Protein 1
Amino acid sequence: MNKTIFQIAKMDCPSEENLIRMKLNGISGIKSMDFDIPNRKLTVFHSGHIKLIEQSILELNLGGKRLSTEQSDQTEFAEKTNQKKLLWTVLAINFIFFIIEITTGLISKSMGLVADSLDMLADSFVYGLSLFAVGGTLYRKKRIAKFAGYFQIGLALIGFVEVLRRFFGLERLPDFTTMIVVSIFALIANGICLYLLQKSKSKEEAHMKASMIFTSNDVIINLGVILAGILVYWLNSNKPDLIIGTIVFILVIQGARRILKLGT
């Protein structure tokens, strides 16, 4: 048995963990994977050559780098019996808030909320792909990943076009109250998801590393939309909403590109 440690520079939340799990799923010889998200490290216990595992991690473009490989006498690994249930829970929370945010975003004319809803949808795709990957065929996983990735990019591009239309056209101000209130609830929802995912890990990680998890992109995006809502009110302009919407659409496209990597 070998133990290989990777540094994953861009692994800052459970979404990246699930992407890596899906990418490595099906590679023969992998016995267990241990994720240390705050320190951005992945430990893989495996038999056989490390080349395919290393190549798969590099293909995700998450800043992966192999740090070390050594022999290990470990043969028993803790099973995460509640992992599937937790994935369904966070998928449901993210998808429900996708519906809430895209509905309120369209009604309130807020591109920030619409963009944030797509980020929630992206997370739903990631967790959904994780569930489909369990016991599913590699071909099926790749087809779903390609559909999800291109669908996300298509929605984001439509969002960009709408941002440009509103930037150069005359459009009424977005409802800043709706932006702030809905984003606060989305912030709470993301907090619950991250807590549940962190709770599934070992006790040593659950309390010491939870605060690091809450610095993930989802939380930052929620705070960005809240700030944009405040600036819309203060400046009496829709530009802060359009700016945060553009930033989030870019993040959505980056996430979609990662999902597409799973289809290759």
Protein 2
Amino acid sequence: MRRLFAWDRDFAVFFCTQGVSNIGDAAWSVLIPLYVLQLTHNPLQVSAIAVIEVVAYSVLRIPFGALADRREGRRLMIVGDIARTLLTLAIPLAAALHGPTLMVIYAVIVPIEAFSALFESAAGAAVPMLVAADDLGKAYAWQESLESMAWVIGPPAGGLLAAIAGTGRALGLDSASFVVSILGLVAVRKRFEAAPDAADEGLWISMKSGLQLMLTDRILRRDQLIWSLYMVAGSGIVLGLVYVGTDGGRSHALLATLAVAAYAAGSAVGTLLAGRLQAVGNLWLAIAAGLGVAAVGACLVALSAAPAVLAGAMLFGLGEGFVLVFHLTVRGKATPEGFFGRITGIGGVLGQVTTGLSMLWLGLVLRFSGGRSAFAVLGGAVFVLAIAVAVAPKPDVGRG
């Protein structure tokens, strides 16, 4: 950690405090559906909350991305975190006071997602603003590895706190993590300034120019297409691991939880490995290699034996983490200054859509054909994508 602070003090502060916030977010992602299920015993209520979250976030992500390119991003992130601290705190307070907790959840979920969209839109420009272009890959590797580890730490920490204090009160963990994020952002010295021309644009013109850039720039378009196709194929992996690990819900959850943890740990290793290999001659071939590793992992999970499931989950996570860092590096190098908020906003919306599509096809195959077939299809689809990326023309990623 001392080496990280010596490398770049502001990025180190941002990295460490956002890591704590990511742990709170990971715990929240597990505790909210668990708490709604405890309150209602109705999985449709859980689905309703999830749909509201996705819709609210997706609708606002692109306009907030344009706003983030027109305003000082660090300030927007602080505003977003202050609002999320107060809003998320309302739920554990309602639980502690034995109030109408479910009504409170429905009341705050849309504004929470709105301020999350604002925060993430501004955060998309943080790494490119904090580090030099040549260090983007290393910075993204550190950032994404810590986010993967947050999923190893956050859900168990939230579960332990829920067992001690109750699930409703345990949701206060996310509120506390937002406070750490605010303190870190205040301590960052560099400012995420808007480009002069972006600051003078109208909001609609700014949104339109971001969409036009994504559609016309062949590097950004290609990079986003590869990542979106991967997301359609593989972003439902946790659902698949839970299904295979519990034999469709008929057995104990131990293998499923270990498989998800192995996937998260593999992702952390993959991101760090990608950070150490940023000097590779061709980023597209690196992406193809990561996709190939993920495909092998999916095929191992298809064998369904416990050792194969754990090894396959880790390999899939490793390949995905590797691809993710190179995807972010390509996007960071290819995005012109003043467009980071809009481009990451478009990517965020596409991520929501492709995740929904992945959950849909995977759920259907799991329901009618089982886990072996689902992971065989997943492995085949990712392998075909890896071959396509490897043999396609490889434009030079030289901008930035």
